[in-house]
Amino acid sequence: MFDDLSERLRGVLGRLTGRGRISEADVDAAMREVRLALLEADVNFRVVKDFVARVRERAVGEEVLESVNAGQMVIKIVHDELTTILGAGDRTFRLAGSPAVVMLIGLQGSGKTTTSAKLARQLIKQGRRPLLVAADPYRPAAADQLQTLGKQIDVPVYRAPAGTKVLDIGRGAVAEAKKQGRDTVVLDTAGRTSVDQPLLQEISDLAKALGPSETLLVVDAMVGQESVAVAQAFAEAAPVTGLVLTKIDGDARGGAALSISAVTGLAVKFLGTGEKTDALEPFHPDRLAGRILGMGDVLTLVEKAQEHVDQKQAGELARKLQRNSFTLEDFLGQMQQIKKMGSIGGLLELIPGMGGAAKEAQAAVDRGDMKRVEAIIQSMTTEERRDPDLLSGSRKRRVARGSGTSLQDVNRLLKQFVEMKKVMRQLSAGGAKRGMLPFGPRR
Amino acid sequence: MSDLDQGVARTRQSFVGRLRGILGGPLDDAAWDEIEETLIAADMGAGLASRVVEGARARRDLEPELAVKNELIGLFAPRRTTGWPHVPGNGTPAVVLVIGVNGTGKTTTVAKLGHRFSKLGAKVLLAAADTFRAAAIEQLEAWAKRVDLPLVAHAAGADPSAVVYDALDAAAARDSDVVVIDTAGRLHTKSNLMDELAKIRRTIGKRLPDALPEVLFVLDATTGQNGLSQARAFHEAAGLTGIALTKLDTTSRGGIAFAIEDALDVPVLFVGVGEKVDDLLEFAPNDFVEALFA
């Protein structure tokens, strides 16, 4: 997610660790790199200036120079400052009134319509009855898009005939929600460019008329230096209560979040992590700060694992690893657990030092490698899965036919399996590194 | 925060007035630093901005303003000024494949391009190969009706390569001069989607080996440094022949275009400056740079 910035800072600050004391020159060198990295992450240059100055001031202080582990102190300061900025403001998602009104605003193409549907889906999970409202009468087929998404998640969509004024759409939607017994209205407003005064006025009128309990500004993670000016323009037009940072599943570093929070004090409330309607996640500033620094997001990982991993099975697996009796059957089981947890790339990224592996693993999933492996193992008999040595040439050919793959594919999998067993044995013997295995024994 | 607030408000002022103001006075280190910051604020990127300033500072023979402009112009790739899109001849239609990440304005650009070619007297056919995003086909249908152009579309969820193949067949049957193809927005990091795009590109090559299609990358002017990694990935998957820089009517300056042209030698050919069908202009490098100083 934010791995480029992580690597950058680690590269710089890594030089500072392992030495007892750091000089002012060391701090300056580090700060130059921090500045560059933040600018490349599209953090607003004024925010960068301010940030670097504060970190520098704290880092060069006596406290650091005389402490034993100076490098770690610098990392901690940068981490603290990032967390402070990202954690500014209120992240609670509040709904009040009947119906409660949620308004989504933002630039064109930032992902408002998709986010509306994701939010509605999450509201249903919380036991609410949302009504989606197509309040964008300008973009061709915007209402159709919302309607299609509404159908997918089984949420009714309110739309008005073309030419209806936005204010009337809003009022009509609230009346309709009352009639249908819907307790939350999610308004997907028209995208706009920040310079468009009439449209900003329209948002302002809509907010005044409906008194939304949440007005979320949707921000594309790829946006550049103008993010702050844009956010300020929207915040002037409507009482913005928080941000949604979208397209964070790309490789944009999302400095916009840091910039906007620093200047407006608004908090990120949700992250958009994919095109499907379930790809909306809550935002955790400390975790994100940790991730920016490449310290890994171990907390999220543990939570995800707890949600999905069958504890008994995990324990069993650990024992098997130690006895070296890990079979292809276990391998298949493990793979199915990974799938339950969602994106492999996202998961591996949570582990320190696994940024590159994350990309590769996700690419493998995207290519369908995992499906192929699954098919191959499922085409084996139980005996073969437990003892791959049974697989003679003719058996392998049968497996290849059965799984719709080639003999080479089968051979490659078997070779990889042997390699993997070797690595796992080393890891579990290594002890300290055992924590790297997301599905290994949890201590 | 008030200090910071003010600072940011200043970035909203035109690039321009500021640079003028700076350039009017004596140029000490602080002034050059401020020029560099101004370039960074235009999304040019910190590394490139510093290179431009260094280059300009070394030109003692030129006025600072001219020196900076010279450096900026020098970043642009060479471009064909006429003959776009490439016309293969022998009755083979010209093909324009429009690609990019989500939400940059591809569909709108497809409609504007179609309208533009049509006004120049060409027989245009549009193809709706974004079969993924909800209502993308309806959106292009609405545009096609508005600009009065024929459209080839399949049902939602269809194979985009099949849509393209059909569109090229239809173009042959209707004797079209140019086919403009809309594709689904895709994040450049999703390798399966980039493979799909490469396949679409291959499909054109298979159906019309002589077409030499134009591959137009649509870039949102509000995009920051990620624009370069987007352009790289799309270039690798489909071989870009041009860029359309959209949403230049926002307060963003689109400075990432400098970095992309500099790194990939792919020229910006069009700029999108509004939501109406005529709001697609030819890109003029000199004007683009001058606009930063106007």
Can you put this structure into words, describing what you see?
The complex is a heterodimer of chains A (443) and B (294). By secondary structure, chain A is α/β, with parallel strands linked by helices. Chain A has 3 domains: 3-86, Four Helix Bundle (Hemerythrin (Met), subunit A) (Up-down Bundle), CATH 1.20.120.140; 100-288, Rossmann fold, CATH 3.40.50.300; 298-436, Signal recognition particle, SRP54 subunit, M-domain (434 Repressor (Amino-terminal Domain)). Helix content of chain A is 59%, strand content 9%. Chain A is built from 21 helices and 8 strands. Chain A has helices at residues 3-16, 24-40, 45-60, 62-66, 70-86, 112-125, 142-153, 166-180, 197-210, 227-237, 255-264, 285-292, 298-308, 311-323, 328-341, 344-349, 355-367, 369-378, 382-386, 393-403, 407-430, and strands at 100-106, 130-135, 157-158, 184-189, 214-220, 242-246, 268-272, 280-282. An 8-stranded mixed β-sheet of chain A has the order 3-2-4-1-5-6-7-8, with helices on both faces. In chain A, strand 6, helix 11 (255-264) and strand 7 (268-272) form a beta-alpha-beta unit. In chain A, helix 5 packs across helix 12 and helix 20 (393-403) packs across helix 21. The model of chain A is unreliable at 1-5, 296-303 and 430-443 (pLDDT under 50). By secondary structure, chain B is an alpha/beta fold. Chain B has 2 domains: 2-74, Four Helix Bundle (Hemerythrin (Met), subunit A), CATH 1.20.120; 94-284, Rossmann fold. Chain B has helices at 2-12, 15-24, 29-41, 46-58, 64-74, 106-119, 136-147, 160-174, 191-207, 226-238, 256-264, 285-293; strands at 94-99, 124-129, 151-153, 178-183, 214-220, 242-246, 268-272, 280-282. In chain B, strands 3-2-4-1-5-6-7-8 form an 8-stranded mixed β-sheet, with helices on both faces. In chain B, strand 2 (124-129), helix 7 (136-147) and strand 3 form a beta-alpha-beta unit. In chain B, helix 2 packs antiparallel against helix 3 (29-41) and helix 10 (226-238) runs parallel beside helix 11. Chain B is elongated and about 65 Å long. Chain B starts with a helix and ends with a helix. The interface between A and B is large, with 63 and 59 residues.
